[in-house]
Specification:
Blueprint lengths: L7 H17 L4 H12 L8 H15 L7 H14 L26 H17 L18 H8 L9
Helix pairs in contact: 1-2, 1-3, 1-4, 2-3, 3-5
Length: 162
């Protein structure tokens, strides 16, 4: 069986979630990337801690380059849009008749492509508020992503960073 790689939206969403948890918590970034990479690698061949760490760090570095009232609201909006819309702005269907948007894909998404997508989103969001996550949006309310939610709900400890 051919290797299957993380869909771009899963990669972006996961790195956004890692960045959010890192900033709002008190656990090292490496702990999140190690834990989530080990769990995601069961389904995706390219789920490495190094890849998740580099993308998450670059997201955080990029956000540090501009003023915002709430950088984490930007990350939350990015996560909402990754999960609910395709890159072309269409509503994402997680479960379809013949598969799932969570299924691995044949093409690997590069670090650069993932960061480019994040930066593009931030510029779109700053130009038009329609991309903001709805007030009160919560990841746990989303349907069809139970497998990912189980990963994100997994307890992350400082020791996971080693």
């Amino acid at each position: 069986m051919a290797a299957r790689f993380m869909p771009d939206w899963v990669l972006g969403f996961t790195c956004g979630y890692i960045s959010f948890r890192f900033v709002t918590g008190n656990i090292p970034l490496q702990s999140f990337t190690n834990k989530y990479a080990s769990l995601l690698s069961a389904k995706y061949a390219d789920a490495s801690s190094k890849k998740l760490l580099n993308i998450s760090q670059e997201m955080l570095y990029f956000m540090a380059t501009f003023e915002s009232e709430n950088h984490m609201a930007i990350v939350k909006s990015y996560m909402f849009n990754c999960l609910n819309f395709t890159s072309r702005g269409r509503k994402r269907k997680i479960k379809t008749l013949f598969g799932s948007a969570l299924n691995g894909q044949k093409k690997v998404i590069t670090h650069e492509a993932s960061i480019r997508g994040f930066k593009n989103f931030v510029f779109q969001l700053r130009a038009d508020n329609k991309y903001n996550a709805p007030t009160g949006w919560n990841l746990t309310d989303e349907q069809g992503i139970d497998w990912l939610l189980d990963i994100y709900k997994t307890r992350v400890r400082v020791i996971d960073g080693f």
